[in-house]
């Protein structure tokens, strides 16, 4: 059975995409630890990040860095956090979020009731920032 992330990538479940390219996508999580919390995910299902092809891992890291720059710009964040937990969904995903404190690195502190309007607004802020940073060709509309 396909992972929930594959279902989002394939359009079977809606997602708030901010980035799309041939190998990776980035979309907002529905349970953010901070506003603008994004997941960077390979299009192909890979369960364990340490077993991933190093070229794909480098690409995902590069996308995470660009998305992180956009989140930092969009929310005037002092720092950007990056986390690979690998426990929630058996499909590699890199969490990119405002690193406001060590508590923001604890996914147990996620907002399980984020409003769709807030998530939509955060996605649009990140898309606008990605465009202004010169990554418009990858911005998902």
UniProtKB/TrEMBL annotation:
Coiled-coil residue spans: none
Signal peptide: none
Record domain HIT: where: 4-107
PROSITE patterns associated with the record: HIT_2 (PS51084)
EC number per UniProt: 2.1.1.-
Active site: 93
Enzyme class: transferase
Any one Pfam family match given in the protein's UniProt record, by short name: HIT
Keyword line: Hydrolase, Methyltransferase, Transferase
GO-annotated biological processes: methylation; nucleotide metabolic process
Chain span(s) of sequence motif Histidine triad motif: 91-95
GO molecular function, one term: methyltransferase activity
PANTHER family per the UniProt record, alphabetical: ADENOSINE 5'-MONOPHOSPHORAMIDASE HNT1, HIT FAMILY PROTEIN 1
Name of the protein this chain belongs to: Diadenosine tetraphosphate (Ap4A) hydrolase
Organism in which the protein naturally occurs: Gordonia westfalica
């Amino acid at each position: 059975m396909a992972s929930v992330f594959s279902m989002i990538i394939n359009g079977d479940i809606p997602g708030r995409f901010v980035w799309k390219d041939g190998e990776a996508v980035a979309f907002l999580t529905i349970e953010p630890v901070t506003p603008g919390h994004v997941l960077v995910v390979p299009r192909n299902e890979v369960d364990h990040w340490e077993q991933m092809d190093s070229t794909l891992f480098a690409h995902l890291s590069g996308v995470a860095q660009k998305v992180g720059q956009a989140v930092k710009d969009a929310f005037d964040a002092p720092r950007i956090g990056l986390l690979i937990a690998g426990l929630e969904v058996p499909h590699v995903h890199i969490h990119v979020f405002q690193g406001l404190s060590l508590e923001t690195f604890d996914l147990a502190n996620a907002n399980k009731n984020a409003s769709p309007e807030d998530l939509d607004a955060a996605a649009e802020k990140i898309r606008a920032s990605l465009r202004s940073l010169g990554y418009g060709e990858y911005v998902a509309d």
